[in-house]
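Lesson 9: reading folded outputs for more than one chain in a single document. The general rule is that every protein is listed as its sequence immediately followed by its structure tokens, and records are never interleaved. Here is the first one.
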Amino acid sequence: MKLILSIFLLFVFNSYFGHCQQVIEKCPNYRSNYTYFATTIGTNTYSYNWKVNYNGVINNYYTETINLDFEEYGNCKLELFIEDDINCESRIQKYEISIIPCQETTFYVPNSFTPNNDGLNDIFKPKGENFSDFEIFIFNRWGQEIYHSTEITGWDGGSGGYYVPEGVYSYYITYRDIKKRPMQLVGCVTIIR
């Protein structure tokens, strides 16, 4: 009799079936406790044998369900072996888990700059980490577009070959965060000369 084995993972909102790898980001709101369980179809299970290698520490469990806490960064390897009541054995099922630092996007937009060629704060330039597909539009107080770029090189306060006057200008910025979600920012920047 053939034994069919599946490893199921229970998460707070989603369930993933049959994956061999999992990445857990250790963010401020991450869940550290995960439940792993095995089911068999078409036979009566006699024994379960989980081998868990978490950062070089090996533990064995002999139950259908195991609960693991991932408090540290690193790697965890699960191996599951099942035997039924007529000594039919499953192959070892392997599952790898990586616990990594939080991969978040940071994005900062200054609220003023001084484009007076003194080498200090001369460019209006958003800064951040882990983002892509950047695009910026800057508008004057009448809503006319005076600057547009898909590069994060920064705006020098110029438009059409001339420097714009001191004052408040609106910006519209789009980008994608590290998880490829579209983000939008709308705000104002003040030019001080």
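And here is the second record, again sequence then tokens.
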Amino acid sequence: MIKNILVGYDESRPAQVALAQAIDLAEAISGRVRLVVVRTEEGPAPQPELAAEPGIVEMVNVGLDDEELETEAAGAPPFVEQARTKLIAADVGGSIRVASSWQPAACLREEADLADLLVVGHSRAHSGRQVGRTTRNLLKSHLPCPLLICTNQYLPITSLLLIYCTGQAGGRAVSLAAQLAATLNIDLDTVVTAPGRRAPRRERARVASALLAYHTEGEVLATTEDPTDAVLTAGLQYNPSLLVIPEPSLLRWPWQLAPLYSSALELPDTLLLIVP
């Protein structure tokens, strides 16, 4: 179950929304929130051949227990104090780390190795659900932990839709979605995708049987649609506040998002949780 929540944070509005979503979830599941603020270094990295490495120049820890915090002296930007105040007020426990790096996505990926969930804002440079450069870079390779992509405004999680695909990531998505639904006391609707199979009902029965262990409420349906199409069809039908999808086994090319991600990001007013 999710306990250690990591938030990629900066001074932008989407990052503030991501922090609010993370705090709300942490309060519901008795988790902790860990903030990582990545300040991008100007100029080229000194070792271009290590472009995939985090490239961390400096890492500063900011405590939550200090009565006073001089952010300048601690090497943290002033907006970090606002986030620190919110964490203290929420009383969920956690920590803040400020990093300077040439590779923000790689830095977040390294920090996420020790997290149960990584939460990011949708983008501060685009409207709609287009993701920014850092999130896009995260999605171009396999995720170290589940990734929650927020919308441009805070959304309470009141309904959950799971798109199931066969495979290890699909099984983990079932487990995580069911645990969240049970903990948050909300319905879990599941669409089992079995493209090209003659008996999709068999896959549906397998998933429905697995969900019985979590005592969740909701429909379990089967479809022969491709997962990319099923995301849009079911998403528009159920209009969930949280959509859970497994990470695709094939991420295509490094310059292009997987079609499943692109389809999921088209759904309006929906939080997206990707499970590796």
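What the second record shows: The CA atoms of residues 239 and 270 lie 8 Å apart.
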